[in-house]
Every structure is written in C-alpha cells, then in structure tokens.
C-alpha cells in the first residue's frame, strides 16, 4: 500500500490478482448468505468496493441442478471482479462447479470457515481446516483443470487454537497454487469474542501469497487499523457493509444518496421485497430512532416502503 491510509477511490483493475499487486489495500465485500447477491454487489461497487463474493453455494447442488444454478448465481457485465464461493468436500465436484462459472466470474473461493453445525455435519465449511491434505487436493485439482491462468482459486478459513496448525494449512494451500487466503481471526467455537488480529499477522508473516483479514471491521478507520496491525493485503467486510454499504468510500454512516441508489438498483433488478426491506433495515439502523424502527420494520410492501422513504427522507 502506498501512503499510510487506505485509498477511498476504487481500483479500476478487473483482475483480482492485479488488485493485490496494485500497491493499495484491496477492499472486499464478504460472502453473505442471502445478502451478497447481484443487487447488493452493484451497490457496494459504487462506493469503493474493489472485489465482491457471491453468497456461499453448495457445489454438489450447483453441479447437479439447473434450478440451483439459476437461483443461486446471477451476474451481469458490470459485476466484476467477482469471486464465486463454494462449499465442497470433493475435488472433482469443486472442479465441475468451477468450470461452470469460469466464463462468468474471475475466480472461485473454497469455504473453509463456515462454523454452522449443519455445514460441518455435512463435511463442509470450517471442518476443512482440520483436513489440510483435502484442501490442498481441491485447490490443486481446480488449478490443473481450469485452463485460464488468470482465474483465481482462493480459500477462506478460521484459525485453530494451536496457530501452528493454521500456518501449516496455509503453507500446504500455498504450495498447491492457492491465489490468496482470507483469514477470519476467530476459532470455530468463537462467535462474538474479540478477533485475533495478532494471529492474522503471524499467518501473513509466514506466507508469500496475499492474505486478507476478516472479522469485526465496521468503518474505514477500522480497516486501516487492521491493515496496520496485521500487514494484510486486503480487508474483507460483512456486517459493516450491510450496516453501511458506503463504508469503503469513507462514510461514517449510510448517506441518503446510498439509500436512494439502493432503491433504484433494487427496483431495476427486481429484488424480492424481503431482501429489499432487510437491506434497508440494516442501512438505516444507525440513522433511525427506536420509534421510527417500530414503524419501518413492519412495513409489508414495496410501495409502503417507498412512501415511507419519500415522506421521511425525501428519497
């Protein structure tokens, strides 16, 4: 990174690996179930986000079912650079999924960090951090079977209590050709405990590929602090962007312009009402009173929401 603050202007590079070599910290929208879909990705890209992830998609379903492909993966020309995140436990299934999205995306990410019980019971998500050989094989298979050398293959992990095991996992993945690694600085058991940024720093110092820091980053200032604490090449944000999609552009809270943009994008994309409304609830959390929330959060139609925004905010 050049200078000692994170650039608020968006990189114009469309290749994810070029982003990591741009000299600036890469600003990333995390994979979020139900939320990091095309319409929201379109919004955050307007406000300084360099790289976006789809929500996690189960690779086996995606490969098997055209219906799953249609409902889980939507993109368009402006939706780049884009990483499709998959949950997988078999190398060939991940390869097949990667091959399907390869013409439409810039890379895939293997989820090795989801701590939810159902995912781990199925052999997906965070249980993979205890199977470094399997992770290595999956990365290597995709690398070997996708012809495009610019197509990235990354992983997103949580940390072990014994950090040596995490470093070992990361080094095995690096040796198999992984493009970068995102580290959520908590163990599988930890939910709201403080993030171990010191652990991310140790991992960063042990690797020569880019490392992305993730966990509890709510403002651009937080992003700068985490970059300085860890030396991470990129900063990935989830809830901070839900609450303020303009965060990477340096806004402390969601500006009205961003709410207006969301309304325009969501209507243009035909975003389902529940999703449209939920995003607004998150965005307006910090700028509305308890009383206003009571009214806004129970609105039940797009027209009611539009009327409310017009009457109260001139949107």
TrEMBL record:
Cite the InterPro entries for this sequence: Aldolase_TIM (IPR013785), DUS-like_FMN-bd (IPR035587), DUS_fam (IPR001269), tRNA_hU_synthase_CS (IPR018517)
Name the Gene3D superfamilies on file.
Answer: Aldolase class I
Question: Which co-factors does it depend on?
Answer: FMN
Superkingdom of the source? Answer: Eukaryota
State whether keyword Flavoprotein applies: yes
Q: Which UniProt keywords apply?
A: Flavoprotein, FMN, Nucleotide-binding, Oxidoreductase, tRNA processing
Q: What is this protein called?
A: tRNA-dihydrouridine synthase
| Species, as recorded | Colius striatus (Speckled mousebird)
């Amino acid at each position: 990174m050049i200078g000692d603050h994170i650039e608020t202007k968006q990189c114009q590079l469309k290749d994810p690996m070029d982003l990591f070599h741009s000299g600036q910290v890469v600003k990333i929208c995390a994979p979020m179930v139900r939320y990091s879909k095309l319409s929201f990705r379109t919004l955050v890209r307007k406000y300084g986000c360099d790289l976006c992830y789809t929500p996690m998609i189960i690779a086996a379903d995606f490969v098997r079912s055209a219906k799953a492909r249609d409902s889980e993966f939507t993109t368009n020309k402006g939706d780049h650079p884009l990483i499709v995140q998959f949950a997988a436990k078999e190398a060939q299934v991940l390869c097949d999924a990667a091959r399907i999205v390869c013409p439409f995306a810039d890379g895939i990410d293997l989820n090795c960090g989801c701590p939810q019980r159902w995912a781990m019971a199925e052999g997906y998500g965070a249980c993979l951090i205890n199977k470094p050989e399997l992770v290595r094989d999956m990365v290597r298979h995709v690398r070997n079977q996708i012809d495009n050398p610019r197509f990235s293959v990354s992983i997103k992990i949580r940390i072990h209590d014994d950090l040596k095991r995490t470093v070992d996992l990361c080094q095995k993945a690096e040796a198999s050709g992984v493009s970068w690694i995102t580290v959520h600085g908590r163990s599988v058991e930890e939910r709201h405990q403080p993030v171990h940024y010191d652990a991310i720093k140790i991992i960063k110092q042990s690797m020569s590929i880019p490392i992305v820091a993730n966990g509890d980053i709510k403002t651009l200032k937080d992003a700068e602090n985490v970059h300085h604490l860890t030396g991470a090449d990129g900063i990935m944000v989830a809830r901070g962007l839900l609450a303020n999609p303009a965060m990477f552009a340096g806004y402390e809270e969601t500006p009205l312009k961003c709410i207006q943009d969301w309304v325009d994008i969501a209507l243009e994309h035909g975003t389902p009402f529940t999703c449209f409304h939920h995003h607004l609830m998150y965005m307006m959390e910090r700028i509305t009173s308890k009383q206003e929330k009571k009214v806004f959060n129970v609105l039940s139609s797009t027209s009611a929401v539009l009327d409310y925004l017009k009457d109260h905010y001139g949107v």
